[in-house]
């Protein structure tokens, strides 16, 4: 390749890479969900196995109580999922119901006031994941307050 052409393309390639990084980072950073250090003090209410993936889900007693009454989960509900791949912790995925959050989302898949975030095994935000995928998928669960495991919450034995 012509060295002068390579030199002139380099800034464009670098800018494209930076734009991709900024877009991915912004997607993850737009979420108000922070890593909840004490999530294991909530109730472990469901284990889902899918091939080599095991998902462990935790939620508060208040969320379980609301589900048992067929009510929407209360604002402040935090659901944490531990995602294990081949027996190793791969990531955390959290969803939190934040008052008014749905009003801030223009043109995206509707998930009410639910915000999502993914975290690496060390609890840091995973900027390499696109959390808009969470919104797209969970939008199909409107009748379950956008929670795939709503029925499992409802069936959880109260403590």
Automatic annotation (TrEMBL):
InterPro entries: Cytochrome_P460 (IPR032033), Cytochrome_P460_sp (IPR038142). This is Cytochrome P460 family protein. Pfam families: Cytochrome_P460 (PF16694). It comes from Vibrio olivae. The keyword Signal applies. Residues 38-149 form the Cytochrome P460 domain. Residues 1-28 form the signal peptide. Keywords: Signal.
